[in-house]
Amino acid sequence: MNLPMHLSLIDEKDDVLYVPAVHFRRWVEQRSFPKLVMFGTHEQQCRVHPHPDQKNEYMISTQLAKKLLLPDDRAYYVIERDHTLRIGPVVGILTAGFTPASARPIGERSLMFAKMLATSAKMGIAAFVFGPHHIDWNNRTIKGYIYMKNRWQQITFPFPDVIYDRLPNRKSETMDVSSKTKDRFMTEHSITWFNPGFFDKWSIHQLLLNSDSAKTYLPDTITSPDEQSIEDFLDKYGSVYVKPSNGSLGIGIQQLIKKKGDPHYYCRFRTGTRNRLRRYTSLRRLLKRQFSKGMDSYMAQRGIHLLSWNGNPIDFRVHTNKDRSGRWQVSAIAAKQAGEGSVTTHVTSGGRVLSIQELFHEIGKPKAIVNAIQKAALDLSESLSENIKGLIGEIGFDLGVDEDDKVWMFEANSKPGRSIFIHPDMKGYEHKTRSLPFEYCIYLFEQSRKQTESVIK
User: Fold this and answer.
1) What pTM value is reported for the model?
2) Is 223 exposed, middle or buried (0-12, 13-18, 19+ CB in 10 A)?
3) pLDDT at residue 126 in the model
4) Which helix H or strand E contains 444, and what residues bound it?
């Protein structure tokens, strides 16, 4: 497998790149030498020479590095393409929510991005964080943020090889400047973009219904429900979850309950910091009070009797990522237990995170359930990436297991949250979910070469 190699700076005024002798000898034998060197989208003509000390590394003149906007001397990947040596990958992490504070330029997410950048640098990747307002379209440069020597700095980069979309919410994604930025990078500059947008719950449900390997995991779900369809679900399943079609973090989810032999209807929901339970004499009265603006923007999903611990239901958060080979793998898995009286297992609603080990030790379930959960996540990931337009590199799933050990999918998120990593036993998973997106960036960088191109190892 191709590995990053050290690239040193040498104080020379000519545009020269010193390369390992083995590559230089091959070019002599082929009577064909690279004529250009690229870093991101910047390219310069250069001369190549064998490394003067016969070392298996590269040296680049300070003049050439300056023209390419190469920020520092360290390990990078180098691939050969059409008589061009490409140094990289250069990865731009697009986000929003920048602040004037130099110590925390991306607000409360600054620490998360600092960890991401530290991980990427160790992997041989030139990564930076930026927003649309940092782009200079005329010069094809971006004044991006890096985290180096325990502080944030802004330096100028060329347009990247890959853009990793980390816009924080639907509002920032739907802003005109965000959509225009994405369109311009992809159409005018042919830059690879992955994780292109937030999932619409109903669209994802419909897409997976058409997949034989995925539809078995889907609970009965309808969009824009009315009183009769809710009544039918309650008669059949006893409970139904009503959730905003474009919601996230469990916000706005309500559980409707109808117990056999009880004439009343119940609604469990959350307001502010309180979990609430209301009783109604009729479904019509409940819907009119709880959904005063109608249910056109909602989905209704059948209730499922989940595994529980100490009387509180449990579901599972599973992260999947594409790796260095472009294949899906499960990168994190944790259990989440609902808080007392909560409609969801979200930590913000009183839920708590449990490691798989402590959960199954307590409830005495076989570890085969973990294998079933992981298989479901991989089946669903494959189906989504095959059928959604654009490149998807990571997904977060909320999965449940019923009392018969059947796995169900409740939700898929293209920008999974990181609340499960508050658990001390999840630290290894946290690093894995941080490094795998950059492994996928390396894969995309290498895939940019043609079949006839060779990789310098």
Assistant:
1) 0.89
2) middle
3) 96
4) helix 427-447
**Contacts of 339 by beta carbon, 8 Å cutoff, 6+ apart:** 275, 312, 345, 349, 350, 351, 352
pLDDT band at 427 (very low <50, low <70, confident <90, very high): confident
Q: How many CB atoms lie within 10 A of CB 84?
A: 16
| pLDDT digits 0-9 by tens, 360-399 | 777 766 678 899 999 999 999 999 999 998 899 999 999 9
Residue 4 CB: number of other CB atoms within 10 A?
Answer: 16
Order of all β-strands in the sheet with 42-45: 42-45, 36-39, 84-88, 75-81, 5-10, 58-61, 16-19, 47-50
CB 61 within 8 A of CB 14: yes
Q: Which among 2, 244, 234, 208 has a CA at the least distance from the CA of 124?
A: 2
How many CA atoms within 13 Å lie on the side-chain side of 319? 25
Q: Which residue has the tokens 């979990």?
A: 275
For the chain, give the mean pLDDT. Answer: 89
Pairing verdict, β 36-39 and 298-302? unpaired
Q: Tell me which amino acid residue 455 is.
A: V
Q: Residue 27 has which token pair?
A: 């070019």
